[in-house]
Automatic annotation (TrEMBL):
Source organism per UniProt: Roseateles agri
Domain of life: Bacteria
Name of this protein: Uncharacterized protein
Transmembrane parts of this sequence: 6-26, 38-60, 72-94, 106-123
This protein's UniProt keywords: Membrane, Transmembrane, Transmembrane helix
Length: 125
C-alpha cells in the first residue's frame, strides 16, 4: 500500500513539475503574441504537446511509477489533480495581476496531463 502511495505521489509530482516548467516556457514564448488563438486549436496543441512529453518521459522513467491495478486509478486521478493545481496557479496569477495563459486553466491543464498519462499508461512497462 505504501508503494502505491509513493508511486501515485511520484506520478503526480512528475506531471506537476513538468507542466510547471512547460508553463514557464509557454509564458516566455507567448509574451509577444497577446492575441489569444482559437481555443480548439490550442486544445489540440496541448494534447499533442502532452503526448510528446509523455513519450519523452518514457526515456527517463521507462517503468510505471504506479504498478498493478492502480494504474487505471492513476490515469483518472492524476490528471484531475494536476488540472486543479494549474487552475490554482491561474487564480494565483490573476490575483497578482499577471497574464494568465490557457494552461493556467483547469481544462487545458487536465488535457495536457491526461495526454501525458495516457502515453505513459499504454507504453510504460
Amino acid at each position: 500500500m505504501l508503494e502505491f502511495i509513493f508511486g501515485l505521489l511520484g506520478e503526480f509530482l512528475l506531471q506537476v513539475i513538468v507542466e510547471a516548467l512547460i508553463e514557464m516556457g509557454f509564458r516566455s514564448l507567448a509574451e509577444p503574441f497577446r492575441r489569444p488563438p482559437n481555443p480548439w486549436l490550442a486544445a489540440i496543441g496541448y494534447a499533442l504537446f502532452g503526448a510528446a512529453l509523455g513519450g519523452l518521459s518514457l526515456l527517463a522513467f521507462p517503468n510505471n511509477l504506479v504498478q498493478g491495478p492502480w494504474r487505471v486509478a492513476n490515469l483518472v486521478v492524476t490528471p484531475i489533480a494536476v488540472g486543479c493545481v494549474m487552475a490554482g496557479i491561474g487564480a494565483w496569477r490573476t490575483r497578482r495581476g499577471q497574464h494568465v495563459l490557457r494552461i493556467d486553466r483547469f481544462g487545458y491543464g487536465y488535457l495536457f496531463a491526461l495526454s501525458v498519462a495516457l502515453i505513459r499508461f499504454y507504453f510504460a512497462s
